[in-house]
Amino acid sequence: MNLAKVLGTVVSTRKEESLRGLKFLLLGQVDTARELTGTTVVAADAVGAGVGEMVLYATGSSARQTKLTDRRPCDAVVMAIVDSWEIGGRELYKKGRDD
């Protein structure tokens, strides 16, 4: 899994039938200091994340292992909204405080 910030949404009115009903988010991958790394990805949203939130996303075959994405042609999926993270006992991010 990777850390990312939700940068925005992606809307597609014409798409493969099996993708209908999915919400797509534009994610910017971040490092542990919350700095954007320059990597972006479009991911299906399995948890109801919103713009500005920090999330965990999975890619590849792992992206098709949620109830929402099972048997759908998804290569990336948001699997969790991050509440906080710490390194070495030091809290580096806390939702609501650092948004």
Kindly name the structural category. mainly beta
Tally the helices: what do you get? 0
The residue fraction in helices comes out at under 10%
CATH superfamily placement: EutN/Ccml
Distance N terminus to C terminus? 21 Å
**Helix-strand pattern:** EEEEEEE
Just name the CATH architecture: Beta Barrel
Q: Please tell me the total number of domains.
A: 1
CATH topology: OB fold (Dihydrolipoamide Acetyltransferase, E2P)
* Quaternary structure type: single chain
Please give the order of strands in the largest beta sheet.
1-2-3-5-4
Strand content: over 45%
Largest sheet: 5 strands, mixed, barrel
- The average pLDDT value, as a whole number, equals 91
What is the CATH level 1 assignment? Mainly Beta
Overall shape: it is: elongated
